[in-house]
Amino acid sequence: MDELPIQSGDDVVRVRQFVRNAAADNGLSLVDQTKLVTAASELARNTLVHGHGGAARVEVVKSANGRVGIKLYFTDEGPGIPDIGLALTDGWTTGTGLGLGLSGARRLVDEFELTSKPGAGTSVVLVKWSR
Q1: Could you list the residue range(s) of the whole structural domain that residue 86 is in?
Q2: Reading across the β-sheet that carries 54-62, which strands appear in turn?
């Protein structure tokens, strides 16, 4: 499992590139690569902007039926999310964006889990499976 720091905009770009390479190297289709990279980009940016930096981890996983997937972990020790349900609502934002980051990322992947506590940071784990 590879861990990538997220402390700058350049790190967000590195996460995108690393995720794209991992997805391509492990047989995800171009469409699924694009979905995963888009989700990773949104979550890396959230980690940087809202979590004040953190890390991403990338892991290749296999399902019980032999499908390969890419599992991503994003963690920060920022202020956390006080209302996860609200944060996952399309159009809700604490910034100047469109409010589609978390909800959009969730729609682009096959598995999505968000854990957060106010004052204790946020963790997002997601998986995109090969078809």
Answers
A1: 2-129
A2: 2-6, 54-62, 68-76, 121-129, 111-117
